[in-house]
Amino acid sequence: MDHFLAAYNEGDPRHLDHCLHPDYRHPNPAVERGIEGMRAAVRRWSAAVEDLRLTLDDLIVEGDKVVARMTFSGRQVGTVMGIPPSGRRFSVGLIDIFLVEEGLLAQHWDQMDLLGLHRQLGALPA
User: Which Gene3D superfamilies match (predicted)?
Assistant: First the structure.
């Protein structure tokens, strides 16, 4: 998980080369399959969020699954999920369940507090 977190926290998608399976599968069909799709996702988030932090709060490993409860925070300076730049700070929880294949993260499913994100960025009333 260290390299996965570092990719976001340092804005350097090269960290993903050390932790992702070459055929990585993202739950969003708009994200290209493979490491390059995740590299692009890291670049998009890094460009849109200043002071981006992805903090690991809990980690559970069982069999071929890794569950990470994390906090995602920063200040929106670019478009995020169709929401124009607001300059607002945000902090939301997310849970990712990763499938491990050949010792690498091969797929994940995620749940992010999208309602909280939209409210904190001013796209919905509080």
Answer: 3.10.450.50
DSSP characters for the chain? -HHHHHHHHTT-GGGGGGTEEEEEE-SSTTSPSSHHHHHHHHHHHHHHEEEEEEEEEEEEEETTEEEEEEEEEEEE-S-BTTBPP---EEEEEEEEEEEEETTEEEEEEEEE-HHHHHHHTTSS--
6-62 tens-digit pLDDT: 999 999 999 999 999 999 998 888 788 899 999 999 999 999 999 999 999 999 999
Sign of CA dihedral 118, 120, 121, 126: positive
- Domains of the chain, residue spans: 2-120
Domain 2-120 CATH (choose: 3.30.750.24, 3.40.50.410, 2.10.60.10, 3.10.450.50): 3.10.450.50
Alpha carbon distance 4, 28 (integer Å): 18
Q: What pTM does this model have?
A: 0.90
Say yes or no to pLDDT of 126 above 80.
no
